[in-house]
UniProtKB/TrEMBL annotation:
Keywords: Membrane, Transmembrane, Transmembrane helix. InterPro entries: DUF599. The chain crosses the membrane at residues 12-33, 80-99, 120-140, 196-217. It comes from Paracoccus liaowanqingii. This is DUF599 domain-containing protein.
Length: 258
């Protein structure tokens, strides 16, 4: 019997459907709420956008700029590490899905029920979806950080140059967009771990979804790091005109959409 035949012969039970709906609703909901929080309670991801713009403001007048290049290199290294880890995890999940008989024998040894309403292959497809999505997000974030590096290199060395601050703000927008993609990849990794609970049943999947949702919300809206970030929050930079440290002004595009 092929994998497709096995999947077709194991229809989803109602509790499994409810658990899956909760999983994807929580994943999409926390992502939307993190990037579009209430005005009076911004998330850590939104708060950090001000610091990223502030970084590029001072980047214009910093000499030398090796410090900024090192920071950006560390950001790219982080995205590359997570992308590589997701690629390895995807290969492992594909190997498990392609070797269903051994997987069922291992499940029997662990006293799990391999003849449940849904097949083991289908249960592994859900975490593989999240891992694959995380891989794509990390790869795109890595490329955007590369675009940001090129844009930073195009900023003139003289702070009073008419294009200096405008290009710095373009680099900031690219940096912010890359960070959003990186954060989305991290959320996918969190929910991939939570979705592994489906291997032991729908109730475990619901519990794992609730735990991941609470952890993700707490880190964005009720963490100690958020309190530290709020201690000295930079003022928002107006999108129409930007004043540089040397008094120069330049046009700044509106911030990119989430």
């Amino acid at each position: 019997m092929t994998m497709l035949d096995q999947l077709a012969s194991h229809p989803l039970a109602l509790r499994d459907l409810i658990a899956l709906v909760m999983l994807f609703a929580a994943w999409l909901g926390i992502g939307w709420f993190t990037e579009r929080p209430p005005q009076g309670r911004p998330s850590v991801s939104v708060l950090m956008t001000r610091y990223r713009r502030e970084w590029m403001r001072y980047f214009v007048t910093r000499e030398p700029r090796i410090f900024d290049g090192n920071i950006l290199a560390s950001l790219r290294e982080g995205t590359a590490f997570f992308a590589s880890a997701c690629m390895i995890a995807t290969g492992g999940l594909l190997a498990l899905i392609g070797n269903g008989e051994r997987l069922r024998s291992i499940a029997s040894g662990l006293e799990l029920d391999p003849a449940a309403d849904t097949g083991w292959e289908l249960r592994l497809l859900v975490p593989m979806f999240f891992v694959a999505n995380a891989f794509l997000k990390f790869v795109w974030a890595h490329r955007l950080f590369g675009y940001c590096a090129v844009m930073m290199a195009a900023v003139p060395n003289k702070a009073d140059h008419p294009d200096a601050m405008a290009r710095a703000m373009q680099a900031a927008d690219l940096n912010i967009t890359a960070a959003r993609s990186f954060n989305a990849g991290l959320r996918s990794v969190y929910f991939a771990l939570g979705s592994l609970g489906w291997l032991t049943g729908a109730w475990t999947l619901m519990l794992g979804t609730g735990i991941v949702l609470w952890v993700t919300w707490r880190r964005e809206f009720a963490s100690t790091s958020r309190q530290v970030i709020l201690r000295s929050l930079p003022a928002p930079i107006l999108p129409d005109r930007v004043s540089g440290p040397g008094g120069s002004t330049g046009s700044a595009p509106p911030p990119p959409p989430p």
